[in-house]
Amino acid sequence: MTGYSSKTFAQKLRSLLRMPRKLADKGDDISEALNPRYAACSILYNAAVPYCIWCEDALSAYGVPTIVFDLFLLTPDPGEAAATLIEAGYVRKEPNARFCDIPQFSNRLGPATSCKGDRKSIDKSGGFESLDPSMTEVVLLPANEWFYDLLEDAEDMTQWKPPLSKLLDSLMAKWFDLKDSDSEYNLQSHIAIFISYIYLYVGEVKEPGFERGLLKEHWQLHFDLAAGITGGGLNSSRCHHHYRSIKDKIRTGEHEPQSPQARGNPSVACYPEHSAEANNP
Hints:
There is one protein chain. By secondary structure, this protein is α+β, with helices and mostly antiparallel strands. It has eleven helices and seven strands. The chain has helices spanning 6-18, 28-31, 39-46, 55-61, 78-87, 164-177, 182-201, 219-227, 237-252, 260-263, 272-279; strands spanning 52-54, 71-75, 90-92, 108-111, 119-121, 128-130, 138-142. The strands form two sheets. A five-stranded mixed β-sheet has the order 1-2-7-4-3. A two-stranded antiparallel sheet has the order 5-6. A hairpin with a 6-residue loop joins strand 5 (119-121) and strand 6. Helix 6 (164-177) packs antiparallel against helix 7. The protein is elongated. It starts with 5 loop residues before the first helix and ends with a helix. Residues 1-33, 114-128 and 272-281 have low confidence and may be disordered.
């Protein structure tokens, strides 16, 4: 495989970004791919590889004041996306030290660099992050494992950030799906933070009727998060088990989701598990 120095790659990238394929007529959102941080997005788009931004970048796009690290992208076929990026000058990278306890984030690529002169240490673990947005590392995630349907053809994509309801539905579905095992708990906790941040900072999710854009099986979790009565953090095993049980009962028709106002009792005591947890910290 042909390697690129950081200088050569930057020159190649600027050329790619100057002539994006039909980006201008795809709407305001897709034009943001000209930001050097989203160089990989432009490369994938030009190769007709579907993708959307994920994790911190997706939250940031909706106004959540989070720091961004690697660029996480959902794609139907991470292998195809990786091959496309490698052809453009990316190389395989070691997993980010920040996420060493989340093996699901290990499919990482980045621009080839000739030295560490354009990079900064992120912590005592010896990891590095780029000072140059165009040198941002990318983590590719399989869309199906995140319960997200991506358009098959990048030509049809009008947005490269996920719609808010689809983002929330996918995060909730993934959170429900993960087990409390050591190999999945860290990712489960990471997603719990994402969901909590959305309800803390994005006012749109608390507007009446927002639930109609979500899967019905997620409505009870949504209602309680919007009202701030989940009875503890979503990274609590008790909370996770409780809402997964409710989600299953909604599927089978045993539970009809209701907002606290409709229940006439906004108290968290309506959930025995949470009440017990509050009384026995």
